[in-house]
Automatic annotation (TrEMBL):
Residues covered by the Aldehyde dehydrogenase domain: 17-478
EC assignment: 1.2.1.27
Family the entry assigns: Belongs to the aldehyde dehydrogenase family.
Name under which the protein is recorded: methylmalonate-semialdehyde dehydrogenase (CoA acylating)
Domain of life: Bacteria
Annotated organism of origin: Pistricoccus aurantiacus
Enzyme class name: oxidoreductase
PROSITE patterns the UniProt entry points to: ALDEHYDE_DEHYDR_CYS
UniProt keyword list: NAD, Oxidoreductase
């Protein structure tokens, strides 16, 4: 059977790459090669940027109502093709089908938000701010934007970028992850089926060379990045030095604080799902649970819950988690588990050597739980990006807040409690961008911005919500005064009537 070659997308159509460098796209459950993706040539990237630059000249002038109608059609097509998109995600990423469908739903929320673009892009006006002087603002598009996404959400992360960028009148060049590009490509096809004109949305593929070309290109005005801290820092620094706006959402070490007054079963079920869903391959995974006071006695329930989770291929409907995305990702996670045991953490549940019947080549790691974790251990300091939960015990809420705030990352955190006082104290004093109260993964709805902070974010403005509108537009302030015309050919009335 011939293996499908992933195309580029330029000028509104799929384009076969002429690159000599290609990478296999694998099914993580079987290691079967399901596609091949090119690493674009410099000329191909240049062609994509040129296409976007040319399209911007006309797209920026398209009425807001027409852009709105395209977004409305786009969201309808995503809804119609949810199952197809989810199957493509599962095929190349490995996450379970229900999890993949949930990802499509989260991306859909952003597109639905973009459907309100006539209201979102409104400026402000002060009539008669001075003597017959009006002052008003215009929120105008920047030009060509670029997006660079990680593998873990091949639908949601692109939706965090291009829908609002193009809805505000920009054009776009997207570089998806080379590990699972098929669902992203199908999303782009649906955007064009919805009515995006040629050149408004283009796709290139590749590694560091392509990323650097996008960072350096003078025609690209803004870059949105979601991925690792190492790459995100590089993109932010290189893009900023080239004079671009850059938003970089990066690594995390998220904590779930559990108070002894919390609903026990709900808290445990939620923290297990947030730690092990998508095999822990998400930047908002709660990979550390901080048990406060008497809640430390709940460790046995957490261990039992982890042991009872079902591991299988993403196509297995009752699976709680699927394989890791690649053998390299699996080996890295296994290495960190080994290191945690060597450093003295208690390995309460060992996910190594996990075998799934019928899938001997799958990248499976079972749910893993460490207790007695200390802040100086590698399993706490590094973002494992796998199904590994670190359990920490403290005496008080103050100690829990101090422990979380001492971590350099600030992406998300949650607290489980029935005390309004404790919840308010936590949300006020915690130094983390996104807070959940009895919510395990505090990713806000799409009309609020994604607000990671500290080591998890570079740039002032994040994706989604009002911040994204500000990121993809520039504010132009107009101060205007109009004088009465001179008496020409019969005076002002005849002048106006001409």
């Amino acid at each position: 059977m011939s293996v499908r070659e992933i195309p580029l997308y330029i000028d509104g159509q799929a384009v076969a790459s002429s690159s000599s460098e290609w990478q296999d796209v694998l099914n993580p459950a079987t290691q079967e090669v399901v596609a091949r993706v090119p690493f674009c040539t410099e000329e191909e990237v240049e062609r994509a940027v040129t296409s976007a630059r040319q399209a911007f000249k006309t797209w920026r002038k398209v009425p807001l109502a027409k852009r709105q109608r395209i977004m409305l059609k786009f969201q309808a097509l995503i809804r119609e093709h949810t199952d197809e998109l989810a199957e493509l995600i599962t095929l190349e990423h490995g996450k379970t089908l229900p999890d993949a469908a949930g990802e499509v739903g989260r991306g859909l929320e952003v597109v639905e938000h973009a459907c309100a673009i006539p209201s979102l892009q409104l400026g402000e006006v002060a009539e008669n701010a001075a003597n017959e002087v009006d002052v008003y603002t215009l929120n105008q598009p920047l030009g060509v934007g670029a997006g660079i996404t990680a593998f873990n959400f091949p639908i949601m992360l692109p939706c965090f970028m291009f829908p609002l960028a193009v809805a505000t009148g920009n054009t776009f060049v997207l570089k998806p992850s080379e590990q699972d590009p098929s669902s992203t490509m199908r999303l782009v096809e649906l955007a064009h089926e919805a009515g995006l004109p040629e050149g408004v949305l283009n796709v290139v593929h590749g590694g560091p060379d392509v990323v650097n070309q996008l960072c350096d290109h003078p025609d690209i005005k803004a870059i949105s990045f979601i991925g690792s801290t190492k790459v995100g820092t590089h993109v932010y620094q290189r893009g900023s030095q080239a004079g671009k706006r850059v938003q970089a959402m990066m690594g995390a070490k998220n904590h779930c604080v559990v108070m002894p007054d919390a609903n026990r079963s709900q808290a445990i079920d939620n923290l297990l799902g947030s730690a092990f869903g998508a095999a822990g391959q998400r930047c908002m995974a709660n990979s550390v649970v901080v048990l406060v006071g008497e809640a430390r006695k709940w460790l046995e329930d957490i261990v039992e819950g982890a042991r009872n989770m079902t591991v299988g291929p993403g196509s297995q409907r009752d699976a709680d988690l699927g394989p890791l995305v690649s053998p390299q990702a699996r080996d890295r996670v296994l290495g960190l588990i080994e290191k945690g045991a060597q450093e003295g953490a208690t390995l309460a549940v060992d996910g190594r050597g996990y075998e799934v019947e019928g899938y001997p080549e799958g990248n499976f790691v079972g749910p893993t739980v460490f207790s007695d974790v200390k802040a100086d251990m590698a399993i706490y300091q590094e973002e494992i990006f796998g199904p590994v939960l670190c359990v920490v015990g403290v005496e008080t809420l103050d100690e829990a807040i101090e422990f979380v705030n001492a971590n350099p990352n600030g992406n998300g955190t949650s607290i489980f409690t029935n005390s309004g006082w404790a919840a308010r104290r936590f949300e006020t004093e915690i130094d983390v961008g996104q807070v959940g109260i009895n919510v395990p993964i505090p990713v806000p709805v799409a009309y609020f911005s994604f607000t990671g902070s500290r080591g998890s974010k570079l740039g002032d403005l994040g994706p989604n919500g009002k911040q994204a509108i500000r990121f993809w537009t520039q504010t132009k302030t107009v101060t205007a005064r109009w004088f009465e015309p001179e008496n020409i050919s019969g005076g002002i009335n005849s002048t106006i009537s001409m």
